[in-house]
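Recall the central idea of this unit: under ordinary conditions, the amino acid sequence of a chain determines the structure it adopts. In this exercise we apply that idea directly, starting from the sequence alone.
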Amino acid sequence: MKFNKNLLLDNLEVEQEELFKLAADKLFQEGYTRKSYLKALVKRESVFPTGLRTKSVGVAIPHCDPVNIKKDGILVARLNKPVLFRQMGDFETKVEVYLVFFICSTGGQEQLKDLRELMALFQDKNYLDKVYHSKNIYNTLISWKE
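Accordingly, the structure predicted from this sequence is:
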């Protein structure tokens, strides 16, 4: 799982629509996505919600089909105030999300590996707390499994 210091959005106070636009603009600017990404992301999230409750802060893993992606990466957004996401697998339940991991995947084995690692990261309450409260989120993210 590769985190990139150019793929961080920090200290945000936005609604989901603006968050998705900021992430899409950053990912496009950095060469990770195609112009179709934002529309595909919004559509997929409306059909397959990605909010996850954890023992720490709420997280979400929005993503879309690989056809909208140019190269693999993960943009991490840390929110000062939560954004409501519908819970994965449950259209009725809402999750207050403070950390959002926008997954860009061209498909294949790398995607499965990244998802497994993210799920392990999300189960580590102490580490998620550390990421959310860190002064330097990038250094904390890359310290995973050190």
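Residues 7 and 26 are 7 Å apart (CA to CA).
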